[in-house]
Specification:
One of its GO terms (molecular function) is kinase activity. By secondary structure, the protein is α+β, with helices and mostly antiparallel strands. The protein contains 14 helices and four strands.
Length: 254
């Protein structure tokens, strides 16, 4: 009888590439494992179609509920107490695979000075990257709001923190709520490193490489995660968004 195997169904952003990279790193440990009599052997699905077939072979329909659905179910339970009605069924993994990428929202803040000279080109770039603008407003950032957009690393240096806050509150910024599949990661990838010089060295077509001047005046702020995107949407667009397809704010409301 052969030895047992471990079968896993994994989910994540760029899942195929991320898993392939992880398995490649594991090969570096194979020599040590082989000395002890165990050789690590792995097989992974390479396409969504193969993933679907293999998942259907090893698992049943009731084995999986997506994390999105779990969060939604929690939201439903609380919403029922306050008289709200939402979807009352869990979304299975197989349904999720067949449906495809979920449309999400993220927030792009074009910093003072950058948007007034380059707005037409930036909007054109967004359109080419299949983003849909579902919220837009001019805003003069208050100090507490500006502080909330800065990373913990920036806040550790008082001089750098003051420079960022002074710049962010120096004029009008343009805030956009953007919608597309995998919106958060796609926007971060387009913006590039926060230092325009690093962005230029990495890829001169990155947006901060094109529109940034310094680490302070780097042109853009973008939500760094889904959770931060939800926070930013609630902060900048409390009145709601002009997109019937996006239920992010409703589902995360509670």
């Amino acid at each position: 009888m052969s030895n047992p195997v471990l079968v896993c169904a994994l989910r994540g952003i760029d899942a195929f590439k991320a898993l392939a990279d992880a398995l490649k790193r594991l090969t570096q440990c194979r020599e040590n494992l082989s000395k002890s009599g165990s050789l690590l052997q792995t097989v992974m699905a390479l396409t969504p179609e193969v993933t679907f077939r293999q998942a259907a072979f090893f698992f049943t329909e009731t084995d999986f509920v997506t994390e999105h659905a779990r969060c939604l179910l929690k939201s439903i339970c609380v919403s029922c107490l306050v008289g709200k009605s939402q979807r009352s069924h869990a979304e299975s993994l197989f349904t999720y695979l067949q449906t495809g990428a979920q449309i999400l929202c993220t927030v792009l803040l074009i910093k003072p000075g950058a948007w007034s000279h380059s707005l037409a080109r930036i909007l054109r770039k967004l359109d080419l990257e299949k983003f849909r603008v579902v919220g837009m407003k001019h805003i003069n950032l208050e100090l507490d709001v500006a502080l909330g957009l800065l990373s913990s690393e920036v806040k550790q240096d008082p001089a750098v923190l003051e420079a960022h806050c002074t710049y962010l509150t120096s004029g009008t910024a343009l805030v956009l709520c953007l919608q597309r599949p995998n919106a958060v990661k796609k926007l971060i990838d387009l913006l590039g490193p926060e230092d325009p010089k690093l962005a230029q060295a990495q890829d001169p077509f990155l947006w901060r490489a094109q529109y940034g001047i310094s680490t302070v005046q780097n042109g853009f702020y973008g939500s760094k995660s889904y959770q931060i995107a939800v926070r930013d949407m609630k902060l900048f667009f409390p009145e709601g968004l002009c997109c019937a397809e996006c239920q992010t704010l409703e589902e995360e409301e509670v």
